Amino acid sequence: MQEVIRFALLGFGVGALYALASQGLIVIYRGSGVLNFALGAIGMVGAYLEYELTQNHGWAFIPALVLGVLASAVVGALVHLLIMRPLRQVSPIVRVIATLGVMVTIQAIAVLRYQANPRFVPSALPVHVWKITGTIVITSDRVILLGIAALLTLGLWLLYRYTRFGLGTTAVAENQRAAASLGWSPDRIATINWTLGSALAGLSAILIVPIVTLQPQVLTNLVLAATAAALVAGFRSFPIAFVAGLVMGIAQTEADRYITCLLYTSPSPRDRQK
To the nearest 10°, the Cα dihedral for 51, 55, 59, 65? Predict the structure, then answer.
């Protein structure tokens, strides 16, 4: 039982970042009605830039983090302005396919530039081991990641529930024509939401690479877990997406533990013959 609890605590970090990425999907969907499958690739841009600055140019983590998040935000805004806005009159499925094209393009550029080999990135967060009881321990970086995700979830919930911008986003999502007649610009609101959602993707990608390694395929697949969490939340509720992401992260670590135990306890073919 203690082993189960220990791996569940390890899942907090991954789950928190799944939740953070899912909230980026929700932000973009609420602002433009587009399910953005390119979000993981857009976040990957920020992760690789932060890696370049810290590992190859000697930058400190915080400035590199800020620049990486800004890079993802700019890429997201450009994707909306140059690709998604001209497609606003087409069917939703065409816009989803367009995001898949963006994902494949960014991933191909990353593979050409960095190859597909995994890069191990040291964590910039404190990794002190906190003993809870017996063999149950948790590292401080997982708690910090959980705190970051919780604070951003609260901030997004307050932003979209109580601010003028949040009310405008909700109005545009419900009826663009009615919102435009009240002075809201659907295009401006969509651009801001794409920028914000992509910035969240960049932040989650930068924070998760010390856990899952820096690799194009891994980061582009991040959107799959994020989509599942956003789907549970109905692409609307930030708190539900937060809880769903945590549950998915815990389930993943528990499944990894179970599979590892099976591999080490299963008899080899030679043992079976004996």
Answer: 20
Which tokens in the block code for residue 27?
Answer: 């932000």
Tell me the whole-structure pTM to 2 decimals: 0.86
pLDDT digits (tens, 9 = 90+) for 147-177: 999 999 999 999 999 998 888 888 777 677 7
